[in-house]
Amino acid sequence: MSLSLSATSMSAQSPVFDDAFRRCCEALHRARQHRSGQRFLTRPLATVPGGGTEAVETHDYHTGDDFRYIDWNRCARHDELVSRQFPRIISGWVHLLVDNTGSMANSPDQGSPKKLRLAQQLAGVWGYLALANGDRVTLDYFASEPAASRQSFDRLAEVETLFAALAACEGQRSEATLNTGVDRLLDAQRPSGLVMVMSDLFDAAGIVPAACRLAEAGHTPFFFQILAPHDARPAWRGRVTLGDANSDRQLVATLDADDLACYAQEFSAFCDSLRQVCRRANWGFLQAWTNETFDTITTRLIRL
Questions:
Q1: Which end of the chain is more exposed for a tag (fewer CB within 10 A), N or C?
Q2: Nearest Cα to 121, choosing from 163, 149, 181, 154?
Q3: In this predicted model, what pLDDT tens digit does every residue of 174-183 receive, in sequence order?
Q4: How high is the pLDDT of residue 47?
């Protein structure tokens, strides 16, 4: 099954959410259903009274059980009251937390889409899959956004409103961090659920403090690290002025090939450490690059 977006759809000049993107979401949902049934991120089915159409087990009747689900045939044969149970997915919450700070909005690579654009599209995919699965979705940002954009979405019919809110998000020059975004989510008293963080995760404090706070509040963290080629191997040489994307701070330095090789090694170690931390803590982690095809990224999504 082909899930790829066209080259035009992935370009920095095209709309963030076009018809090709919507077809990709639909195809991805069908592929995940084929692989995982009705589960979202392999969440297991729950058996509850009256959930489906085919009973899978029974339990002793308890006061308050619906009479419609009593197994009267078994009652007549064995002189005992039992209630039938059916498989059903219990709706959950998926909270999208998007990093819209300056480091996500910059794109030094000529012709390469910004990391924020990929974050918007991936948040759109997650939101579509969750709503199609019967879950409810909320949207929050690291940096300040209009309150109207931070809303909840309860059914698939509202997915276009979610797409519009994501498309309206712009990068902001702000010193907001992952902890700031988590503060905003927790202050909004979001119900316990799956928190999907879309960010490059360039945070001096690391991800552990914020993730632990989410877990303590009953949430399950999932980190989607979004990177651009220049993050791993910047094309800098000689005397350069390095500017902080989120502030006015600057640093003048002279870089040679050895400096860049050392940086590439440190950057690789940084990414490996994120994977190891998430693996040990049983937090979700997936990495995506702006120069990847959407086909490659969505193939990894299906396997989650």
A1: N
A2: 163
A3: 888 899 999 9
A4: 47
